[in-house]
């Protein structure tokens, strides 16, 4: 997959307005501020094609990007307590309705901050992915904030909590690029079959 010519395609605030899939799709989910938009920029090797912010709640819509005939979907983060209940409900509906659409869900990248235990909403998301049978991979983000040893320990702890094998959780960093090549391989596997 050539990521060099990544481009923005479209933004939707209402899941029912999203047109049918025209190509394989990779979507990125996780709590607000976990690093969804950043990991997409890292894949595309672009500084700010996808809008990133240190303030949680940056991505409020479903944003489609395209690279080499594959769609990359940036979703709003869940669980940002500082938002109004109405806003949180809108986002939850948007994410929920998105995954209820009949689409080419080739791969869902579910992001969890490597420093923290999965939240209740992370559990909900992963339970949903398991129940729905959608292909997904877990990427632990911000590994640059821990030593290699601590990162491995955290991966084991989080894997145990989720009932998964540590090897099934990718250790990633959008800062130093750790795990990005592995993520690209997984994306390739699911999108190019
Ligand atoms: P929402 O759009 O609010 O849902 O957030 P998001 O998940 O898209 O997070 P975003 O990519 O905007 O990143 C949030 C903050 O975390 C920014 O300040 C990023 O610079 C920082 N960040 C993201 N990934 C990493 C990483 O791998 N390492 C470090 N050190 N910081 C990161
Ligand atoms: Mg974002």
From TrEMBL:
Signal peptide (UniProt feature, chain positions): none
Keyword line: Cell cycle, Cell division, GTP-binding, Magnesium, Metal-binding, Nucleotide-binding, Septation
Highest taxon above the source species: Bacteria
Organism: Collinsella ureilytica
Cross-referenced NCBIfam families: GTPase_YsxC, small_GTP
Pfam families linked: MMR_HSR1
Protein name: Probable GTP-binding protein EngB
Family matches, as SUPFAM superfamilies: P-loop containing nucleoside triphosphate hydrolases
């Amino acid at each position: 997959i050539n990521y060099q010519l990544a481009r923005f395609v479209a933004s939707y605030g209402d899941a029912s307005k999203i047109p049918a899939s025209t190509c394989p799709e990779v979507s990125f989910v996780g709590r607000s501020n976990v690093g969804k938009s950043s990991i997409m920029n890292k894949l595309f090797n672009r500084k700010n094609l996808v809008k990133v912010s240190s303030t949680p709640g940056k991505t409020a819509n479903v944003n489609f990007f395209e690279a080499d005939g594959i769609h990359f979907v940036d979703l709003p983060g869940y669980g940002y307590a500082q938002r109004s209940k109405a806003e949180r409900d809108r986002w939850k509906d948007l994410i929920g309705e998105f995954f209820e659409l009949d689409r080419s869900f080739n791969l869902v990248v579910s992001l969890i901050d490597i420093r923290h235990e999965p939240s209740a909403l992370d559990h909900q998301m992963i339970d949903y992915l398991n129940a729905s049978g959608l292909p997904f991979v877990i990427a632990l983000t911000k590994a640059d904030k821990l030593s290699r040893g601590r990162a491995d320990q955290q991966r084991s702890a989080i894997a145990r909590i989720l009932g998964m094998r540590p090897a099934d959780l990718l250790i990633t960093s959008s800062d130093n690029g750790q795990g990005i090549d592995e993520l690209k391989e997984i994306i390739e596997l699911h999108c190019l079959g």
